[in-house]
Amino acid sequence: MSTLFGNPPSGNGDGNSGTGRDRKPLFPSRTPLVSSQPEKGIAASGRSFSPDGDSKPLFPRRDSVPASGTQSQEQRSSLFSSRENREPLFPRRETAGTGTATTRTPLFPPRENKEPLFPRRETAGTGAGTARTPLFPSRENKEPLFPRRETVGTGAGTARTPLFPPRENREPLFPQKEGVKPLFPRKDTSTPGGNGGTASRPLFPSRDTGGTTKTSSFSLRQPCSESGRSAPTYGLSSKPVFGAPMSDGAAASGFSSLRQRDIHVSDAEFIQLRDFLYQQSGIFIAENRKYLVENRLSSRLRELGLRSFGEYYNYLRYDSNRAAELNKLFESMTTNETSFFRNGPQLEVFRDKVLVPLLAELRGKGQRKLRIWSAGCSSGEEPYTLAIILTEVLRQELHSWDIKITANDLSLAMLASARRGLYNDYAIRTTPPDMLAKYFTKEGNLYRIAPSLQKLVSFGQINLSDKAQLAKVERSHIVFCRNVIIYFDDEMKRNVINAFYDNLLPGGYLLIGHSESLHNISRAFKPEHYAGSIVYRKQV
Fold it and tell me: What would the pLDDT profile of 134-152 be if each residue is shown by its tens digit?
């Protein structure tokens, strides 16, 4: 049969076809690595590693030197020649003398005739009793290194001269000027002695009273009388500190010592007051603002006659007057920094982008009712400012509208000041002059707000941490809460913002302080960005 590549091969399968032995092998043998000269065993068998007898070996054999005997005893030439007639690699050292007693020259010659490296010290005398000169000579006949002080007298009663002589007959170190009274006069410590002499009086006399009752420098706190709570006394002088008049009632005459020292709050007391304030008002004080507690509440402790913040904490919880003191606590721990027309760019956005479109929208619906909530109104500057803006926008139309501005704050003292409507120069520092002349009346050094504006505002106390109080506020079109939530932690902020959202009517507006944000607090409002302010609007 024919195959794919021609005729099929014939033969016995050894790679050669047929019986032709003269054909080239399919795999020719390699050239041998050794010489082509056959060894005895190989030559006798008639086999060779090389098919070509003329090929040169890769490693030729070394020449052999024939020796006496047969060919089988021939020797090969050495790879390294002998060193018999060559100079030694390390020549021997010369020897002195001949025979077996010869000695080699020393590598390092002896130091017999040389000077010693460390010469010996001289000795005094000869024989076994000789003594070597001392390395450090004796100081017997020399002057002492530290000479002894002279002694007065002889025998056992001798006294050594003092190291530092007394200053009795010496001049004073700082001589006193004539006619000048000494700053610290000396106390007379000498008392007449029994033998006509004087005896030294101790600087701190003994407290042994010989059976009599000892009196303390500080008297114990007196118990409360039946008629009422008496002020504590401490046996101190009632002289006022730095000329300040002493208050009647709770502050005792002997309490001036506490005025002269600072009252510090411990870590445990700080945590108690911080948590209590947070539970009552939602105001949170960070641990790095611990100094605020000391600075703002120390005056309360002095006025109440309390000695520690722990006592003040117990007073806030258990005393019969705790409700009134709680308002004092709120007033002390909040910052009432405000003024009329504060943050003018934001108020312009309120007037042009919020109030005017909202009034137009209400007119279109046939409604003439507007509700604004000022949460955290302080002493009334913010709600009165909103009333001025409303009056300027509506003008003659104002009397046909039902307008109410609800103003709330935590501090009763601030609300009382807001109802009075009297303000100093600092409160009106940012008021435009034309608004000041139009809506204020000068009364001495103060300015009184116009009564027409007071009719638009309704003041009342509210605690933003009380959900029940927040739910009672009438629903509003606009909510102002500027610079209030900065006192709250994130949880309290969420609660207050959610309360504002529930209070606002659909499409209502929320305005907060320029340094405040609802980021990570609430996503319920849609922020509207304007130049100078951000307005948060409730979706319709």
Answer: 777 666 666 767 777 666 5
